[in-house]
Amino acid sequence: MTAQLEYPDPQESDALLSIQGLWKVFGPKPARVPHHPELAALSREDLYRRTGCTAAVRDLSFDVAPGEVFVVMGLSGSGKSTLVRCLTRLVEPTAGRLIFEGEDLRAADERRLRTLRRSKFSMVFQHFGLLPHRKVIDNVSYGLEVRGEGKADRKRRAQEVIDLVGLRGNENLYPEQLSGGMQQRVGLARALANDPDVLLFDEPFSALDPLIRREMQTEVVRLHREVGKTMVFITHDLSEALKLGDRILLMRDGAAVQFGTGDELVGAPADDYVREFVRDVPRADVLTLRWIARRPRDGEPLDGPELGPDVLVREATRLVLESDRPVKVVSAGQLLGVIGDEEILAVVADS
Ligand SMILES: Nc1ncnc2c1ncn2[C@@H]1O[C@H](COP(=O)(O)OP(=O)(O)OP(=O)(O)O)[C@@H](O)[C@H]1O
Fold first, then answer.
1. Is the alpha carbon torsion for 324, 328, 329, 332 positive or negative?
2. Ligand 1, pocket-test mutation among 26, 205, 250, most atoms within 8 A of CB
3. Which residue has a Cα nearest atom 2 of ligand 1?
4. 51 FRET partner, CA 20 to 30 A, in 106, 168, 178, 351?
5. Whose CA is nearest to atom 16 of ligand 1?
6. Nearest Cα to 232, choosing from 321, 123, 325?
7. How do 306-307 and 255-260 pair as beta strands?
């Protein structure tokens, strides 16, 4: 039994990167799995038992918009690393389409792929991947050297990104002379030096201790604000995903469980798995007023203070509790609902 997989036409859409029906199957004769409805529907264990194959990525489809931070989150073994490697074909997908800037990446030959990897994508790895015998500045300019750029240009560009990531003064040190956090700054600088269209991060901060990790997350938020690059960020850490992601894809056993913004995952979990995943998130720091506004009751005063629907519950708490009238949630002059002490306390008490 063979099913024909159908995908939409390569993009008239605004997506920078479009992933359509992507599969990566490891094991013997992997290509039969995506096209075989019965095999494709088997659980991870049953598929392995019947075929000896593991579907690390299962029928994933999503678009990444230009300038967006797209986070892929999931527990160990959910397929995140395989997915991010499939995006540049460092791991060869088994089925599906990858459209980047309108180009079908699966049709690209080795030469074209190498060019794309050098000029359009940069990767930041968990274990930094720095060259130990090269100074910071030479690590940062390495990609430019490979691309054949002249010495003066390389140096100028490397210095620019070294300044950008806060490494000025460390140019002539070797990686082993730097702390983990500093080494990952070198990794970031090296990735930015190529001026790629997409930065791919594979759990870049997992090896760092929690304080440095938070500092680096803030650094990525700042860099994103400054350089506006499209980012695909892999993590198993929910708070990291919520802090960085414009949109989050939650994966389990290779498949998508939910796509959404952080507040959508927390406010409207798709199933019990997601509910359990987000259970300990301080809801007041993630949910916005649009999630808790309700219809005004008959006779309720509507002359209270106004706030927008995107204000975080935490930020609105004081105003709501101090006001003797319900706070109005208003967008473009339209009343979306009201919020009183009850609604606020239900969230804050749960946080
Ligand atoms: N080369 C391979 N051969 C066979 N199975 C593989 C291979 N690479 C990955 N897998 C399997 O695919 C599944 C997904 O692995 P992957 O490393 O992508 O997950 P992950 O979410 O990145 O996990 P982690 O955070 O632990 O790296 C796992 O079951 C893994 O054992």
1. negative
2. 26
3. 26
4. 106
5. 79
6. 123
7. unpaired
Query: What is the full DSSP assignment across 29-52?
Result: SGGGTTT-HHHHTS-HHHHHHHHS
* All domains of the chain in start order, with CATH: 64-93+104-280 (3.40.50.300), 284-348 (3.90.1280)
Checking ipTM against 0.90, whether it exceeds it is yes
Q: What angle do CA 181, 183, 188 make, to 5 degrees?
A: 95
Output the pTM of the full model: 0.89
pLDDT-based confidence at residue 351 (cuts at 50, 70, 90) = low
CB-defined site of ligand 1, < 6 Å: 26, 54, 56, 74, 76-82, 236
Pseudo-torsion of CA 266, 267, 272, 278, nearest 10°? 20
Query: Letter for the amino acid at 304?
Result: G
Q: Residues near 18 by Cβ (< 8 Å), separated by ≥ 6?
A: 10, 11, 62, 63, 64, 97, 98, 99, 100
